[in-house]
Amino acid sequence: MKKSFLTLIAVGASCLMAYGQGAISFRNIGSGAGGSSVNAPINDVNGTTRLAGTGFTVQLWYGTAGQAAGSLTALASPTLGFNTGALAGYTSGAPTVQIPGVAIGGIATLMWRVWDNMAGTVTTYAQAQSSGARNGQSNVFQSPALGDNLNPATIPVMAGLTSFNLVPEPSTYALLALGAGALLFRRRK
After folding, report:
1. Helices H, strands E: what count in the chain?
2. Which residues face 59 on adjacent strands?
3. Phi/psi class of residue 170: alpha, beta or left (left: φ > 0; alpha: ψ in -120 to 50)?
4. How confident is the model at residue 149 (pLDDT cuts 50, 70, 90)?
5. pLDDT at 185
6. CA distances in angstroms from 23 to 146, 163, 184, listed in the order given
7. Rg of the chain (C-alpha set)
8. d(CA 32, CA 143)
9. Are 26 and 94 in contact (CB under 8 A)?
10. How many other CB atoms are found less than 10 A from the CB of residue 152?
């Protein structure tokens, strides 16, 4: 009886380990396990002003190694904002997130999506795009080998993430086109 119980525990533990999800630090500055490091501040539409505060939302999109960008899935939680002051452009907080469907030691395909949440009224990236809120997305990149959430020393950071800018609202493009048209019209006279 005692031997059967110990065998059952060993089989259960090995099953849990086999289905363990790999983890990564959800931040865009710092270093982590395996020599991974990242320094990728996120900028506003002008390319120089770094995003700051809770008026912007950052969400991680994930998939298995090599998965196409169009088929990535939004991680349900957490979503982050940005630091202010000297650390503007970098996410506030640095939670460790588990990547569903990718085992410990596995590689994930990742992408960040960021949007102006319009004082909390725009809650998804799709809503940001359809409402004309400023938004942007990172490059698609492959993670380092994912770590074990129970062993913080194994957790990598978002190595492969690069800085990016938000794109302006569509109305900004319309104003630019009107301005260019006015200049051309004036030049003809």
Report:
1. 3, 12
2. 113
3. alpha
4. very high
5. 62
6. 5, 22, 55
7. 21
8. 12
9. yes
10. 13
Averaged over 120-125, what is the pLDDT?
93
For residues 109 and 67, the answer to whether their CB atoms sit within 8 Å is: yes
Domains of the chain, residue spans: 21-179
Please report, for residues 92, 125, 184, 186, the alpha-carbon distance to residue 75 in angstroms, rounded to integers and kept in the order given. Answer: 17, 12, 47, 51
Q: Which single residue is written with the structure tokens 């505060």?
A: 53
**pTM of the entire structure?**
0.79
Decide: 157 and 39 in contact? Cβ < 8 Å. Answer: no
Position with higher pLDDT, 1 vs 28 = 28
Residue 26 Rama label (left phi>0; alpha psi -120 to 50; beta): beta
Instruction: Identify the pLDDT of residue 94.
Output: 75
Tracing tokens 């119980």 back to the chain, one arrives at 5
Phi-psi region of 137 (alpha: psi -120 to 50; beta: other; left: phi over 0): beta
Say if strands 96-103 and 135-137 run parallel, antiparallel, or are unpaired: unpaired
Q: In angstroms, rounded to a whole number, what is the distance separating the alpha carbons of residues 68 and 60?
A: 15
Compute the average pLDDT of residues 63-74. 95
